[in-house]
Amino acid sequence: MDYNTQREKLIMPEYGRHIQKMIEHVKRIPDREKRNGQIRAVVSVMSTLNPQLKEQPDYKHKLWDHVQIIAGFDIDIDSPYPVPTKDDLVSPPQRLPMSRGPLKAAHYGRNIQNMIGVIAAMPDDPARDQMIKSMAMYMRQQYLIWNKDTVSEETIFNDIEKLSGGRLTVPPHIHLETISDKETFNRPGLMVQTVMQPSGQAGRNQFRKQGKGSGKKHNKRKNNK
Question: Do 36 and 78 meet the contact criterion of CB atoms below 8 Å apart?
Fold first, then answer.
């Protein structure tokens, strides 16, 4: 018996063993022009086997790169795109610089802290004042997500000054619109849980209504018999 464990390892299993054999066959074709024609046909078959690649940008470039990967980077063809090397895939990506500074207010998050620093470095003009007001309104919303009590605008303005290290002071003419007492800001996931899993008396009433309805239909069919 010919088992897959005894065969050559598949380099890219999503294309299957036949594509890998076809590429190995193309590598052994001595005529370069015929070899280029055959590899273009193989790329066309690869595109048919993986139509989801067409939804990605530069999917043809990816197909030709996959040919080089399956061929072990030693196939002599005229590729319409720059030929990748093995080092491009093996070398680890560069580390992204991460901010290690402590958070001054964890309930606001690091993004708000960074945006306040950007606004503080801007010139003093009406556009800056509008950004301060928008930031303050967003900070109040974030505050109310974790603290259900009302919060005054003075508290938000003081937090802006603290997060900016005293560089940003909210102008006296800026005020936040009032929030209705019925307004609520739920944490992610709470609304889905409430809708999908009714609890309490409302959930039991809904279950009883469903049970009564199904019983009436059943009795009606029984009487008709």
Answer: yes
pLDDT band at 220 (very low <50, low <70, confident <90, very high): very low
Whether 207 contacts 197, CB under 8 Å: no
Give the pLDDT confidence of 112-159 residue by residue, as tens digits. Answer: 888 998 999 999 899 999 999 999 999 988 888 877 677 888 989 999
Token digits of residue 123 = 């010139």
| Predicted local distance difference test score (pLDDT) of residue 43 | 95
How far, in Å, CA of 179 to CA of 184, rounded?
Answer: 9
Angle, nearest 10°, between helix axes 126-146 and 153-163?
110
Which residue's structure tokens are 């802290």?
113
What are the two backbone dihedrals, phi and then psi, of residue 92, each rounded to the nearest 5 degrees? -70, 150
Residue 176 C-beta-side C-alpha neighbours within 13 Å: 22
Q: Tell me if 68 sits within 8 A of 79, measured CB to CB.
A: yes
Alpha-carbon distance 28 to 21, whole Å?
11
End-to-end CA separation in angstroms for the chain: 62
φ/ψ of residue 8, rounded to 5: -65, 140
Residues 110, 170: Cα–Cα separation, whole Å: 20
Task: Decide: helix, strand or coil at residue 123.
Answer: coil
pLDDT at 141: 86
Please name the amino acid found at residue 14. E
